[in-house]
Amino acid sequence: MTETTPWLSEPEQHAWRSFIRMQEKLVGRLGREVQAESGLSTADYGVLVHLTEVPEGRLRVLELARVVEWEKSRMSHHINRMAKRGLVVREDCPTDARVSFVVVTPAGREALATAAPRHVEAVRRLFIDPLSPAELAMLAQISNRILEKLEKDCA
């Protein structure tokens, strides 16, 4: 903290801590529920979702790391673990030896298809259902405003 940065006020601190605690509990609960039924961790699920949302189910390793906000080494280690389980494969770029791709396998697609209904059920029960439509719209608006700020700061 710099000398010009004021401490959080009590309402600001309460909002921040409530948000962090909610996020930790929500991600933890979703992860445990999905993993118990499908064997996919939260990280596995997120990687597979991103890969299946792009053409050909492939992304550059660094692009995938950027999208999920991981360091390159964490992504590399996680991809190696997923590859050992047959969920993804690595492919070298034929035109640039410095580049490699992560590609979802049929087994990875199947694992995601199996896990997705449980994930959606849990998201609905834990996140959507407790909110009114107006609260959900406001939460989306707030989230988008913060995401826009974060994306702008990265550019």
Characterize the main sheet.
3 strands, antiparallel
Low-pLDDT residue intervals, each spanning 5 or more residues: none
Main sheet strand line-up: 1-3-2
Write the CATH architecture name: Orthogonal Bundle
CATH-defined superfamily: Winged helix-like DNA-binding domain superfamily/Winged helix DNA-binding domain
Distance between the termini: 23 Å
* Secondary-structure element series: HHEHHEEHH
CATH hierarchy, class: Mainly Alpha
Class computed from helices, strands and strand pairing: mainly alpha
Bin the strand percentage: 5-15%
Please tell me how large the radius of gyration is: 19 Å
Number of helices: 6
CATH topology: Arc Repressor Mutant, subunit A
Residue share in helices?
A: 55-70%
Top keywords for this entry?
155 residues; mainly alpha; Arc Repressor Mutant, subunit A; three-stranded antiparallel beta sheet
How would you characterize the overall build of this protein?
With 155 residues, this protein is mostly helical. It has one domain: Winged helix-like DNA-binding domain superfamily/Winged helix DNA-binding domain (Arc Repressor Mutant, subunit A), CATH 1.10.10. The protein has 6 helices and 3 strands, in the order ααβααββαα. The chain has helices at 10-38, 42-52, 61-68, 72-84, 106-128, 133-154; strands at 58-60, 88-92, 100-104. α1 (10-38) packs across α5 (106-128), α2 (42-52) crosses α5 and α3 (61-68) packs across α4 (72-84). The longest helix is centred in the N-terminal third of the chain and has 29 residues, at 10-38. It is globular and about 55 Å long. The model has no long low-confidence stretch (mean pLDDT 94).
